[in-house]
Structures are given as structure tokens and as C-alpha cells.
């Protein structure tokens, strides 16, 4: 586990260096990989002017991989998984334990502004805001306000999907959809579950893509700017609440 980019970055405007902070995300890696692997995928592929605006905490999933990892020979072990599932993705094992573990991560290492997930981590990142809104997960931590979904999907089990996506999710979201990703259709379906989602399209498959083309960078910038503006407003509102009322003495 590790945190990248925790030093403050100036946001401009009237926000002072003492009040600035970066958007902080808990990062949930893919199936049978690790936090260290996701860190290499994100930091290694996204430009510095993007990653320098974020404070990213890369966590390991709670369970050691129970089988072969698709990244063996590419990234070194150890490998972890968030929960286990049947071949048809309809039965889950250790799912509730996984949700409790993520809540514990947020309590110990938070607060966080949002979640960033890839693959299995993206499935969780997409589902958690809805589960939290219904009091079914993350009940001990602040509301998730932002999510970044890289190669995500709706949880296929109808009972769980209804709980997570029964109504549209209002937290702001950024989705990555790959032209060759086997989850592309499921990712497109997921978009319908969010209010006003932003989308970055890329030509690759099931991977954390590079951010190189102008449209992708503009979309990422727009998403980060919204978060930064929200943080700045929160800081200003908090400062105003704490400011003493200065009175004027009047002679009569």
C-alpha cells in the first residue's frame, strides 16, 4: 500500500497555500493484481501534469489470489483479489467481508474524496456509492462524492445490482471505455446508472490506458477541475464559519 502525490499543489484563485489540498482517492486494483501494480499502471501511463494534481492511495485487496494471475510474467507477485465469484459471476464469496475491509481502509487512511478502480476494483468503485446511499455499505465514513471507473461494469447478480443501481447514482463519475475491452458493453451499460457521467474513450483493451490525445486530456482536466472547485468551496465555506465576527465600537 502507498500514497502518491500527497504534497499540496496550488489551485490558483483566492485559495491560499495553507488551505490547498489535492483531490484524494482510494485506488482499488484489478483482480489478482495489487496496489503496487495499479500504482505502476497509473503513474507510469498518465502524464505528470495529471498525476501531480491527485493524492492517490493504492491499497491491496484483502485476499491472496486463489489462482493464476493474468499479469504473471509482466508484474511480480504478490497478487490479491477483492472477493471471489462463480464462473457465471452470479455467486460471490467474501463480498460482505470485502466491503467491510474497504470501509476499514477509509477509516484508517482517509478521508478520501472518492474512489478510483480498475477492473474488479472498478466494479466495486461503481457499486459502492449506491450501496452507501442505501445504508448497505460504508455507513461509518463520509459520503463518496467522486469515482473514476476504468474498465468497469454493473455487478451482474440481480439482487446485488438492484441494491447498488436501483436508482441513478448522483456522485460525479469519470469512466474509461476501451474499444477492444471485453467489458466495453458492460461499461456502456454502467453509464446509464450515473447522473451526467464523463467518459474517456480509448482504442485499447482491458487496461489502464495512456492519456495522450487532446480529447482525453480535456475530459480529465474538466473532471479534476470540478473536484478542485468543490474542495475550494468547501474550504472557503469552512473558513467563513470559523471566522470571528468583528464588531465596530460606536461612540454615542
UniProtKB/TrEMBL annotation:
Pfam families named in the record: FSH1
Ranges of residues in domain Serine hydrolase: 21-211
Coiled coil (UniProt feature): none
Classification via InterPro entries: AB_hydrolase_fold, FSH-like_dom
Protein name: Dihydrofolate reductase
Native species: Rhynchospora pubera
Amino acid at each position: 500500500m502507498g500514497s502518491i502525490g500527497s504534497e499540496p499543489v496550488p489551485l490558483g484563485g483566492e485559495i491560499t497555500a495553507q488551505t490547498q489540498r489535492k483531490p484524494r482517492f482510494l485506488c482499488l486494483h484489478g483482480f489478482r493484481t495489487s496496489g503496487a501494480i495499479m500504482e505502476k499502471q497509473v503513474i507510469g501511463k498518465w502524464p505528470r501534469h495529471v498525476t501531480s494534481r491527485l493524492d492517490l492511495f493504492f491499497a491491496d485487496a484483502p485476499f491472496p489470489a486463489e489462482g493464476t494471475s493474468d499479469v504473471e510474467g509482466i508484474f511480480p507477485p504478490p497478487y490479491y483479489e477483492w472477493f471471489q465469484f462463480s464462473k457465471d459471476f452470479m455467486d460471490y464469496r467474501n463480498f460482505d467481508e470485502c466491503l467491510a475491509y474497504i470501509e476499514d481502509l477509509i477509516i484508517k487512511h482517509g478521508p478520501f474524496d472518492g474512489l478510483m478502480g480498475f477492473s474488479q476494483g472498478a466494479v466495486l468503485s461503481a457499486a459502492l456509492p449506491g450501496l452507501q446511499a442505501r445504508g448497505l455499505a460504508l455507513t461509518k465514513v463520509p459520503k463518496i462524492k467522486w469515482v473514476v471507473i476504468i474498465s468497469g461494469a454493473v455487478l451482474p447478480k440481480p439482487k446485488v445490482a438492484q441494491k447498488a443501481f436501483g436508482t441513478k447514482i448522483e456522485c460525479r463519475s469519470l469512466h474509461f471505455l476501451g474499444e477492444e475491452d471485453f467489458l466495453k458493453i458492460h461499461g456502456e451499460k454502467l453509464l446509464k446508472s450515473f447522473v451526467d457521467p464523463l467518459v474517456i474513450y480509448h482504442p485499447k483493451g482491458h487496461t489502464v490506458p495512456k492519456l495522450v490525445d487532446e480529447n482525453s486530456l480535456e475530459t480529465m482536466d474538466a473532471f479534476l477541475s470540478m473536484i478542485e472547485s468543490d474542495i475550494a468551496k468547501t474550504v472557503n465555506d469552512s473558513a467563513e464559519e470559523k471566522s470571528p465576527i468583528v464588531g465596530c465600537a460606536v461612540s454615542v
